[in-house]
From TrEMBL:
SUPFAM superfamilies per record: Formate/glycerate dehydrogenase catalytic domain-like, NAD(P)-binding Rossmann-fold domains
PANTHER family, per the entry: 2-HYDROXYACID DEHYDROGENASE HOMOLOG 1-RELATED (PTHR43026)
UniProt keyword Mitochondrion, yes or no: no
Alphabetically ordered keywords of this record: NAD, Oxidoreductase
Name listed for the protein in its UniProt record: 2-hydroxyacid dehydrogenase
Coiled-coil features, chain-numbered ranges: none
InterPro entries, per database record: D-isomer_2_OHA_DH_cat_dom, D-isomer_DH_CS, D-isomer_DH_CS1, D-isomer_DH_NAD-bd, D-LDH-like, NAD(P)-bd_dom_sf
Family: Belongs to the D-isomer specific 2-hydroxyacid dehydrogenase family.
Superkingdom of the source species: Bacteria
Domain D-isomer specific 2-hydroxyacid dehydrogenase catalytic: 4-330
Gene Ontology MF annotations: D-lactate dehydrogenase (NAD+) activity; NAD binding
Length: 341
């Protein structure tokens, strides 16, 4: 099967080319992101592979269908960038990678917690400049603190387990409770307002669906403890960025660590060091000394990239052979806010 891979980097190509020796598909790698303008580049292919910052809206899908595309393979877990209803109407099957390395994302979230708490980013730069003073670097013991986990699928569960290992009290919120979460020490499920009010650290690990869009907004931030630490390694639009900025200015948010940003599409995964960044909101976020931003790299481990390549190519092979896939994403009239498996 000939597959057009959009939005690819060198690391994508190396992992997919190596793994493809087991599948023998014809892989056609493209640098541009997928959208209505670039969709015609898939002409002559039967399938398209896209990434988290590509766009498969109705217009894009119609162009793909007109060029004979029958399969849309997502090499990521999220699928909010796909118009599933239109895909179903056009007869395009959508598959994804529901889980690659949940440890990668969970461990990165913990890394952000440690970096913010112990001011590691400041300490590193100070020592590089021969400044060995400790003023402004004071942190706090994680032991005994309360950590709120919003979304307790595989990633949220692993994050909770790690934080429990630090000696933290763990609170969870999820419309679809995970039995394994309640088995973590003294971890317990609570309603969202209770989690917001009692957590010293809050980490987001839920998918982006209509019910979770801006789940952390001005009202939610108002319910939090003064000086709370907020971590988001899941989806950018879970967090209302402007509300977060107001929370930072007021002191309600004492620390913010994000690996995702709601308007990241034209920023992340690119080298813009020679450009003028026109996103004023993002520039303002970068200016705060208590904010750490990484560019959607939480997933970026050898283990995760290998798993993504394995699952994606297996999804394509199963489709080619007419076999059902447990990773197919089907359109539903109502989508339940469920944490990623």
């Amino acid at each position: 099967m000939k597959v057009a891979f959009f939005n690819t980097k060198k690391y994508d190509r190396s992992f997919f080319e190596l793994t493809n020796s087991k599948h023998n598909h014809e892989l056609f790698f493209l640098e541009p992101k997928l959208d209505a303008v670039t969709a015609p580049l898939a002409e002559g292919c039967q399938a398209v592979c896209m990434f988290v910052n590509d766009k498969a809206d109705a217009q894009t899908l119609e162009i793909l269908a007109a060029h004979g595309i029958r399969l849309l393979a997502l090499r990521c877990a999220g699928f909010n960038m796909v118009d599933l209803k239109r895909a179903a109407e056009l007869g395009i099957t959508v598959v994804r990678v529901p889980a690659y390395s949940p440890y990668a994302v969970a461990e990165h979230a913990v890394g952000l917690v440690l970096m913010l708490n112990r001011k590691l980013y400041r300490a590193y730069n100070r020592v590089r400049g021969d400044d060995f003073s400790l003023d402004g670097l004071m942190g706090f013991d994680l032991h005994g603190r309360t950590v709120g986990v919003i979304g307790t699928g595989k990633i949220g569960l692993i994050f909770a387990q790690i934080m429990h290992g630090f000696g933290c009290q763990v609170l969870g919120y999820d419309p679809m409770p995970n039995p394994s979460f309640a088995a973590i020490g003294a971890a317990r499920y609570v309603e969202l307002p209770e989690l917001l009010e009692n957590s010293d650290i809050i980490s987001l690990h839920c998918p982006l669906v209509p019910a979770t869009h801006h789940i952390i907004d001005a009202e939610a931030i108002d319910q939090m403890k003064p000086g709370v630490m907020l971590i988001n390694t899941s989806r950018g639009a879970l967090l209302d960025t402007k509300a977060a900025i107001s929370g930072i200015k007021s002191g309600k948010i004492g620390y913010l660590g994000i690996d995702v940003y709601e308007d990241e599409d034209n920023i992340f995964f690119e080298n813009l060091s020679d450009s003028v960044l026109l996103d004023d909101t993002f520039q303002l976020l970068q200016s705060f000394s208590n904010v750490v931003i990484t560019a959607h790299q939480a997933f970026f481990t050898k283990d995760a990239l290998q798993s993504i390549a394995d699952t994606t190519l297996t999804n394509i092979t199963q489709f080619e052979r007419g076999l059902p896939s447990q990773n197919e994403v089907k359109y539903q009239e109502k989508v339940i806010a469920k944490s990623p498996a």
